[in-house]
Automatic annotation (TrEMBL):
<protein>
    <submittedName>
        <fullName>Glycoside hydrolase family 18 protein</fullName>
    </submittedName>
</protein>
<dbReference type="InterPro" id="IPR036573">
    <property type="entry name" value="CBM_sf_5/12"/>
</dbReference>
<dbReference type="GO" id="GO:0004553">
    <property type="term" value="F:hydrolase activity, hydrolyzing O-glycosyl compounds"/>
</dbReference>
<dbReference type="InterPro" id="IPR001223">
    <property type="entry name" value="Glyco_hydro18_cat"/>
</dbReference>
<feature type="compositionally biased region" description="Low complexity">
    <location>
        <begin position="368"/>
        <end position="419"/>
    </location>
</feature>
<dbReference type="GO" id="GO:0005975">
    <property type="term" value="P:carbohydrate metabolic process"/>
</dbReference>
<keyword id="KW-0378">Hydrolase</keyword>
<feature type="region of interest" description="Disordered">
    <location>
        <begin position="359"/>
        <end position="424"/>
    </location>
</feature>
<dbReference type="GO" id="GO:0030246">
    <property type="term" value="F:carbohydrate binding"/>
</dbReference>
<dbReference type="Pfam" id="PF02839">
    <property type="entry name" value="CBM_5_12"/>
</dbReference>
<dbReference type="InterPro" id="IPR003610">
    <property type="entry name" value="CBM5/12"/>
</dbReference>
<feature type="domain" description="GH18">
    <location>
        <begin position="81"/>
        <end position="355"/>
    </location>
</feature>
<dbReference type="InterPro" id="IPR017853">
    <property type="entry name" value="GH"/>
</dbReference>
<dbReference type="GO" id="GO:0005576">
    <property type="term" value="C:extracellular region"/>
</dbReference>
Length: 487
């Protein structure tokens, strides 16, 4: 998938890893016994003399576990849905694209790092000066975008080449920490090792365990990017990526599944992508992979941003947006991945998310009596994509090298909640972890009324899954909200 052709001649076989420090000034017990005002003034003075310079995990070694976790919490893994773009093409030797050009994505992967060398935009990140790197990182963080490095890609075969998985993991983790990245994606494409030799699963198991030991869960992103057919059951030695998932799936945050480059007619329709794959790669569509035991919301749908970015498997943004909307309606909420920037821009991701999680659409749920409605109307043409909502209007146009298209759909949802005065949540059942809920179901939980916005099971209202919308507080009798079926 991810072949690096742009500027492979430049490598860093040896890196001088410059260590930054974050100097902490602490208050002694004697100072704590001073007058409270003196203590406060001392604390303020301490804040003024903090020396802020690049920080890495090595510098946290002498801190307490609480202090270390607090500092590293800024690296927290983004919650689903995630929106991932890879970046391998040459743009500049001394900078990255402006964060505004990839707004709408939540993860930006610099390609590539190998077992003991750097390539392409991993080289760029390492050679940028510390101040510029810190400024870029802050700009991306402010836009809600995590910066990670992608390992390997389609031009190297680490297992077949005899690379030591432990040494490779140490090298990659050291790079992530030293250059203040948010994590690593494992774009493993050693086809001979996985499909023929049967050595891939054991290698990836050791590699992933070592990486995760060095990049703790919750503090660093760790993802894999397998091709979709590797999830076909009983087709590969050690059961392919189903074997990898069985061994180390709990250590992997999500899978950036490559639903492309697998044949001209593979994964090119919503049905083939989401529900049922062809007999060539059996049981490798999205929900079929989930049926084989991989959590549905760990499966991020990967597609090329333009037809020129892959041999086959391309979908225009309108079609892909429709597919994501259909998958969401069935309970999926993992997100999408694409290869690669600069074809994958803020305009591209806005178009792709339009039917599922529109960019900028996050609004705090109402907590009082509400009546809301939403409608979307558009017309099919050959030139643009237009989406209109009764409460807001936006027009997005996207053009790829092969075609420009517009998709239009129509749907309407209305919900009403009425409060009374008897101090109860009458008419709604209490949320139960063992129950299965579908979109529109209403429950009470922790003193509030909640409405399901997708299929879910064992997903507590208010949790990270985002499966529930808070409709009202339970300070009165309530009539359950109703939702019209999705178009």
């Amino acid at each position: 998938m991810h072949a690096s052709l742009q500027f492979r001649y430049r490598k860093l076989d040896y890196l001088e890893l410059q260590k930054g420090r974050l100097r902490f000034w602490s208050l002694t017990p004697a100072m704590a016994q001073l007058h409270p005002l003196a203590f406060i003034l001392s604390a303020l003075l301490a804040l003024l003399v903090v020396e802020a310079v690049p920080f890495n995990s090595t510098d946290a070694a002498g801190l307490s576990p609480i202090a270390r976790d607090f500092i590293l919490s800024s690296r927290a893994v983004p919650t689903s849905p995630v929106w991932v773009a890879y970046f391998d093409q040459y743009i500049s030797w001394d900078s990255l694209p402006a964060a505004s050009s990839v707004e709408g994505f939540s993860v930006f992967a610099l390609a590539f790092i190998y077992s003991n060398t750097l390539e392409d935009n991993a080289v760029v990140w390492a050679t940028i000066d510390n101040d510029t790197r810190a400024s870029i990182k802050a700009e991306y963080a402010a836009a809600g975008i995590s910066l990670i490095v992608s390992a390997y890609g389609g031009t190297v075969s680490p297992t077949s080449d005899g690379d030591d998985p432990v040494a490779a993991a140490n090298y990659i983790a050291n790079f992530v920490k030293t250059y203040d990245l948010n994590g690593v994606d494992v774009d493993y494409e050693d086809f001979g090792a996985l499909e023929t030799a049967g050595t891939a699963v054991a290698w990836l198991t050791t590699f992933t365990k070592t990486l995760r030991g060095l990049l703790p869960q919750g503090q660093y992103i760790l993802t894999h990017a397998p091709v979709a057919p590797w999830f076909s059951p009983n087709l590969w030695p050690d059961n392919g990526y189903l074997g990898v998932h069985a061994a180390v799936g709990s250590l992997i945050d999500w899978y950036n599944v490559q639903f492309y480059n697998q044949g001209t007619s593979e994964y090119t329709t919503c049905t083939g992508l989401i529900n049922s794959s062809s007999s060539k790669w059996p049981n490798s569509a999205l929900f079929q992979i989930a049926a084989s035991g991989v959590p549905l919301n760990k499966l991020v749908i990967g597609k090329p941003a333009a037809s020129s970015d892959a041999s086959n498997g391309f979908m225009d943004t309108a079609t892909l947006a429709t597919c994501l909307g259909q998958a969401k309606a069935l309970g999926w909420s993992a997100g999408a991945m694409t290869w690669e920037y600069p074809d994958a821009t803020s305009a591209w991701i806005a178009a792709v998310r339009a039917d599922s999680w529109p960019v900028g659409s996050s609004v705090p749920p109402p907590i009082s009596t509400t009546t809301s409605s939403k409608s979307t109307t558009s017309t099919t043409t050959t030139t643009s994509r237009t989406t209109t909502t009764s409460t807001s209007t936006s027009t997005k146009t996207t053009t790829s090298p092969s075609k420009t298209s517009t998709k239009t759909s129509s749907s309407s949802t209305t919900s009403t909640t009425t409060t009374g005065a008897n101090g109860s949540c009458s008419g709604a059942s209490v949320w139960t972890a063992s129950a299965v809920y579908t979109s529109g179901n209403v429950v009470t939980y922790n003193g509030a009324l909640w409405t399901a916005n997708q299929w879910n099971e064992d997903e507590a209202p208010g949790g990270d899954s985002g499966a529930w919308d808070r409709t009202s507080t339970c300070n009165a009798g309530l009539v359950p909200a109703t939702a019209a079926p999705k178009a």
